[in-house]
Design goal:
Length: about 120
């Protein structure tokens, strides 16, 4: 029994040490400089327009990230509203279309993400 505990401890302690060293290494590398953030930041200088079919969104500076158009559309008969989203883009125009019976665009917007 004593021998089994020694073997278990002799395996567990080095493994625990390796895991702790890895955790400290990851934590130490978590900081980022301004230059790194600029390369993988969120898009900026974005414009959104409501159209008869939904909404469009475009950003002049993608900064390494992505953006997409969002639109809230209303069913004229029931009055219910539903959200629709366009495709993620890094450049060009993202289109969000009202679909089905939700034909009337009510609100428009855009969403960004770091990628």
């Amino acid at each position: 029994m004593v021998k089994k505990n020694r073997i278990r401890k002799s395996i567990m302690l080095p493994a625990l040490g390796v895991m702790m060293a890895g955790a400290f290494t990851l934590a130490a590398g978590a900081g980022a400089t301004a230059a790194e953030v600029g390369a993988t930041g969120r898009p900026s200088d974005c414009n959104v327009e409501k159209k008869s079919f939904g909404a469009i969104a475009m950003c002049k500076k993608h900064n390494g990230g992505h953006y997409r158009a969002l639109v809230v559309c209303k069913d004229p008969e029931s009055g219910k509203m539903m959200d629709f989203a366009g495709a993620w883009r890094k450049s060009g125009v993202s289109y969000a279309y009202c679909q089905g019976s939700y034909l009337k665009p009510v609100h428009e917007g855009h969403e960004t993400k770091v990628s």
